[in-house]
Amino acid sequence: MHKRQITMIIGIMAVAALVAVFAIVFNSTPNEKEAVAATSSQSSKTVDKKKQSTSQSSQKVASKKNDAKSSSTTDVEKTLDVKKLLKGQSNVPDIASVNQKGNELTVVLADDGTQSLNDFMKAYAKATTLVLKSANEQSKISTVTVARQVKLEDGLEYAVAGKWQKDQLTVVNKLAVDPAIKDVLLSASHYSIGGSVWDAFSQQQKNDYQNHQQGGQVEATDNGFNKWVQAGIEKNK
């Protein structure tokens, strides 16, 4: 009798143990699934972040390329094509040289050796006005210097030259399409009339410049401009 009770107790304990094991197994399964799901979700988020980072990097590179292209285009647009500007225009001189450096534009016009002094000066005035008006439309250009050479028996010189800066560039639109040389030069910050031309002027023409072979809107001496004009004198060797 005692043995049967012991056997029953052991049987009951074995059944209880099995029930406990099943309970543990069934209770742990959902937790494991949740853990797996959480891990999968985290991995997916990490991949998404990497994709987003890669996409943002690509967009930044594309943006930089577009900015560089835009900047390059702007620089090109701000370079004044003087040769194209004067091409096809009637009564304008040939171009000896053009140099645009930073915000400064320098143009030297050639002499064909066939024009009278009056026609020579008219051609300079027209070409210079076209250059000034085009330069004034470009904010990058703040200084324009234009000279025209003349051929002499003993060499070359800048027969006439002018320099327009800032305030003077803003009023060039007041000049006529075919302006008088006097109006063009007197609108300049500085001007210089070569000796050969000045000597050929009538007294009335000299009076137009108040008998000043060199002058302009800016009274202070421009040594840089004067040296440039002086460098335009080339004697025959």
Please, could you describe this protein's structure?
By secondary structure, the chain is of the alpha+beta class. The chain is built from seven helices and seven strands; from the N terminus they run H-H-E-E-H-E-E-H-E-H-H-E-H-E. A hairpin with a 2-residue loop joins strand 3 and strand 4. The longest helix is centred in the first third of the chain and has 76 residues, at 2-77. Mean pLDDT is 79; it is low at 28-38 and 68-77.
Low-confidence stretches: 28-38, 68-77
Helix count equals 7
Could you give the order of the helices and strands? HHEEHEEHEHHEHE
Number of strands: 7
In oligomeric terms, what are we looking at?
single chain
User: What general outline do the C-alpha atoms trace?
Assistant: rod-shaped
Structural class determined from secondary elements = alpha+beta
Helix content: 40-55%
Largest sheet: 7 strands, mixed
Residue-averaged pLDDT: 79
Computed Rg: 43 Å
Strand content: 15-25%
